[in-house]
Amino acid sequence: AKEAAERAVAAAVPGAAAADLLTVPAASGPTAGDLDPAAKQALQGQLAALQAAAPITFAPDSPALTPQGADTIEKVIAAVRGAPNAHLQVDGFVALGPARGPLTAQQLSDRRAAVVRDAMIAGGIPADHLRAAGRGEGTSPTDGALERRAVVRVV
Known about the structure:
Elements lengths: L1 H11 L24 H17 L2 E2 L9 H15 L6 E7 L10 H18 L7 E8 L6 H4 L1 E6 L1
Parallel strand pairs: 2-3
Antiparallel strand pairs: 1-4, 2-4
């Protein structure tokens, strides 16, 4: 976009140069509509408890949710509706070890995070309140089923 703007200025005013002086002030605290720290902590506690009781899990080598995973997403959506200004991060993971599917660990974890984000959007959570990222392989080689997961947290 910057290069396109520079070309447009050069075409419109030959010999002129565009100065890149855009600055964005750093946030100094919660902005209008953000959750206060206590509300963030309370919501994070709810989300952590829901996901500890029933993780958001996926079928092996697939971005398809398990029935438990889909059910947990519905519960997460209900909790987030009680805090409509919450901003959330969805992290997708895959089990340790060689993949048996056509996707790399990063691609699969990206898709898992996107599936959860899309389900939350379909459930009424504003898209601009959600970020999703794949985190690749999980951290525990002892239970692959629990590593095929997504985690939703408050940011």
